[in-house]
Write a structure and sequence with these properties.
Layout (H helix, E strand, L loop, with lengths): L1 E4 H6 L1 H11 L3 E5 L2 E6 L41
Length: 80
Amino acid sequence: MTTVNVQEAAASFPKLLAAVEEKGETVVICRDGKPVAQMQAAKPKQRSRLEGDPSLRVTLAPGYDPIEPLREDEIPPEYR
């Protein structure tokens, strides 16, 4: 962990950012000797476990047209 004051952080921001980005360091920025901010590498966003799962892929029956309305005998009784 690196600790720097505000003026030093402003003067060497690209160098500090490279340390965080490449080496995974944490940089604490202080004002009057007291920590006020912390820079650390962002964690990549995790993908949903459901995203891209081929077992959840939907296939439609041959000849099914989603635009065509259902016939009366195709509608479940609880929705008539």
